[in-house]
Design a protein that fits this description.
By secondary structure, the chain is mostly helical. The chain contains 18 helices and no strands.
């Protein structure tokens, strides 16, 4: 009798236990119980993947080839990591260029502009990897480099010391590829709203594979003739920005102005951008990206990186301030587009001498650039060179000013040598860009048909809209541009 009672009691207890724990096996009940347990709080759960990553890295380090942690090795690793971070900053500038250009142009061309700014980095990377990088840094010829194509060379092939004394070849290439893409992206803004997509892609291929690497070799190559004569351009006011600006100027001139840009008296009309929020965001992204562009050009993680960052920021601030004041006095209003271009003008201007100018010198360089850009934009308009975003004024004119300013504000630099560099790079880029643009015009054509331009490149070139389903404003309200376009369509 006693045994039967015990058996029943045990069975009842087992049933209670199974009922209790079966609830815990239910997903929701188990999760609720874990949430109430301090060991499974959100911070704890977040740390679990980090623990596994640390263990994996530790195990990999233990099984890797033994490496003595000398001060030189540690510094080499830190240098490489910093240049990787700087490369990401510069690559992210493509988003800034895309937002800026899209905001400054009309909504019917937004997809086209975004597509150009995205694909140009892909093209630049591939072309620069195959031939551009070697043309720019390999070889000992003073005019053009060569050898080690497709990243097949050793450190010495590209003028680098072996690691850890010098940067690893892959990270040096990545940083320089981001610069090459910047030169091609500058062109996009000046030829916006009327260029064939295919023509722009081919020109981007030519400038990043041929034109930019050759002049870059003159300045930054180990045997380049401009560098050998003492020409100084630390991060590329001329090597990157003026090259892109000259190519943009030639392209805008050969393409001709947008329909409706000039009235019946040949006076320029304003064609407002459709989203100044995009443009402002693009400016801020570029401002941040410049902290990779200029400090990264130190090619090392040392005390001068922070100094370069400060001179860069001071020049940008001064450019924005003087552009605001100048446009306010000139046009009786503080024009946001000029504030944006003033900031960018200051950044471009300081790029050549950011490592050697004083803080006061940086402010002066940026302030002058901000004033110059306000007068440069309408100057090109009067010459019938239609640049929708002011790329020529910002990158070419202010790039030349910044390069020349090195001879004024940097000790040991010569203003005449700086002028020789500006002129020689400009002439070569203009000649080569003219050949490229005219060749493209004679073969595949570089300008869309007037009907396509009037309709917008989003539909005609890409078959889609950036703002599908949104109510769209008439093109350029109250400016009479639509009438001007109708007249031009009739002419064609």
């Amino acid at each position: 009798m006693t045994s039967k009672l015990k058996f029943r009691s045990n069975r009842t207890e087992n049933r209670r236990l199974s009922t209790k724990y079966s609830r815990l096996l239910e997903p929701t009940a188990l999760i609720d119980r874990l949430r109430r347990t301090k060991w499974f709080s959100l911070p704890t759960l977040t740390c679990i993947p980090l623990v596994f990553i640390i263990i994996a890295l530790w195990a990999g380090a233990a099984t890797a080839q033994d490496q003595e942690l000398t001060p030189e090795y540690v510094k080499g690793v830190l240098d490489a990591i910093w240049i990787l971070v700087a490369s990401v900053f510069v690559i992210f500038m493509n988003a800034g260029f895309g937002m800026l250009e899209t905001g400054f142009c009309r909504q019917k061309n937004a997809v086209n502009i975004l597509a150009k700014n995205l694909i140009v980095f892909a093209i630049a990377t591939l072309v620069y990897w195959s031939i551009g990088f070697s043309t720019m840094f390999a070889g000992d010829h003073p005019f053009i480099g060569g050898g080690g194509f497709f990243l097949t060379g050793e450190s010495s092939t590209y003028g680098l010391d072996p690691f850890p004394a010098g940067l690893p070849v892959p990270i040096f290439f990545l940083f320089q590829a981001a610069f090459a893409a910047t030169a091609a992206t500058i062109v996009s803004g000046a030829v916006a709203e009327r260029i064939e997509f295919s023509a722009f892609l081919l020109f981007s291929l030519l400038i990043t594979g041929i034109s930019y690497p050759i002049t870059g070799h003159w300045i930054w190559g180990s045997a380049g003739w401009l560098g050998a004569m003492g020409f100084k351009d630390f991060a590329g006011s001329t090597a990157v920005h003026s090259v892109g600006g000259w190519a943009a100027l030639v392209g805008a001139y050969i393409l001709g102005p947008r329909m409706g840009k000039y009235d019946e008296n040949n006076q320029p009309r304003a064609i407002p951008g459709h989203n100044m929020g995009f443009a402002t965001l693009g400016c801020l992204i570029l401002w941040i990206g410049w902290f990779g562009f200029n400090p990264g050009s130190q090619l090392a993680a040392d005390e001068n990186v922070v100094y370069i960052a400060v001179t860069t920021n001071l020049a940008a601030a001064a450019g924005g301030a003087t552009a605001t004041i100048t446009s306010w006095l000139k046009d009786n209003k503080p024009d946001l587009s000029m504030i944006i271009n003033g900031v960018l003008a200051g950044l471009v201007g300081i790029t050549a001498g950011c490592d050697g100018v004083s803080y006061l010198g940086a402010v002066i360089i940026g302030a002058v650039a901000g004033i110059i850009v306000v007068f440069s934009v309408p100057f090109f308009d009067k010459l019938h060179i239609d640049d929708p975003v002011g790329a020529t004024s910002v990158h070419l004119v202010c790039g030349a000013w910044g390069t020349l300013a090195v001879g004024i504000f940097v000790e040991g630099a010569n203003i005449f040598t700086q002028a020789i560099g500006i002129i020689s790079v400009g002439l070569f880029t203009v000649i080569l860009s003219t050949i490229f643009w005219l060749a493209l015009k004679a073969t595949i054509g570089i300008r869309v048909h007037p009907e396509q331009e009037y309709e917008g490149l989003d539909i005609s070139e890409h078959g889609m809209e950036a703002y599908n389903g949104f109510v769209k404003e008439p093109d350029a309200l109250g400016t009479g541009i639509s009438t001007g376009m109708d007249i031009e369509l009739e002419k064609h």
